[in-house]
Amino acid sequence: MSRLTDPNFWAGKRVLLTGHTGFKGSWAALWLKKMGARVTGYALPPASDPSLHALLNGDGLAESQFGDIRDGAALAAITRKSEPEIILHMAAQPLVRESYATPAETFDVNVMGTVRLLEAARATPSVKAVLVVTTDKEDRRRLRRLPRLSASSQERGQADRGLRRGGQGQHLPECLRRDRRGYRFHRRPQRSEAGQADARQLHPDPCAGQARGR
User: Fold this and answer.
1) Beta strand 63-66 with 38-43: parallel, antiparallel or unpaired?
2) pLDDT tens readout for residues 124-183
3) At 143, which helix (H) or strand (E)?
4) How far apart are the C-alpha atoms of 72 and 28, rounded to whole Å?
5) To bridge 152 with a disulfide, which of 70, 88, 96, 127 should be the other Cys (CB 3.0-4.6 Å)?
6) Which of 21, 1, 122 shows the shortest CA–CA distance to 69?
7) Helix 113-122 / helix 72-82 crossing angle, nearest 10 deg
């Protein structure tokens, strides 16, 4: 684990970061840049304006390419072109409420998007490790109640299975990282649970209310 914060490990490493325009992806791009990594980002354009990606000058942190994780050909092309040694997969549809409204799209983005990424990694000899970042919205106890769960919760379980099976026999060191969200301060219709724009979610920044005189 010490390598995760060791600049000597990351310096000069070629890293493909999906979802680099999102909330956590923007912070990851900044952190990798400070560690000396050579970062290539692949994601949709920022979902909000202003965005953390823009505020951090995200285009200066990574060689950025806008694209959809569901576009297997474009994903394979950027993977071949960047020749990454490490892939950090953060691209996702992270909103639980949105998953109720668009369950098919949520499954396609989060499950098949992960599968397409693993296919691209499998075809790229330079890849040594793949880190897939998911959340704590799914666990083994809840799998028995899948019919009652949101599409967002169900697809994370399927993405986990795809990750574990996708790496079998392909000599790909894979890692599944669960990430607990801590943004639970007060109601503001500005940011989502994952830091993205959503008028129905909790705001992660307690200073926003004070800035507005509330």
Assistant:
1) parallel
2) 999 999 999 876 555 444 444 444 445 555 555 555 555 555 555 455 555 544 454 433
3) none
4) 23
5) 96
6) 21
7) 40
Is pTM, for the whole model, over 0.85?
Answer: no
Identify the DSSP state of 68: -
**Length of the chain counted residue by residue:** 214
pLDDT in tens, 17-51: 999 999 999 999 999 999 999 999 999 999 888 89
Contact (CB, 8 A) for 133 and 179: yes
Element (H, E) at 89: strand 86-89
Cα(78)–Cα(132) distance, integer angstroms: 18
Q: What angle do CA 40, 121, 158 make, to 5 degrees?
A: 105
**Helix, strand and coil in the chain, % to nearest 5:** 45, 20, 40
User: What own/partner pairs with CB < 8 Å and gap ≥ 24 does 159-166 have?
Assistant: 159/110, 159/111, 159/114, 159/132, 159/134, 160/134, 162/111, 162/114, 162/115, 162/118, 163/114, 163/118, 163/132, 166/114, 166/115, 166/118, 166/119, 166/122
Which residues share a beta bridge with 65?
42
Segment 164-174, tens digit of pLDDT: 555 554 555 55
Rounded mean pLDDT, 111-119: 93
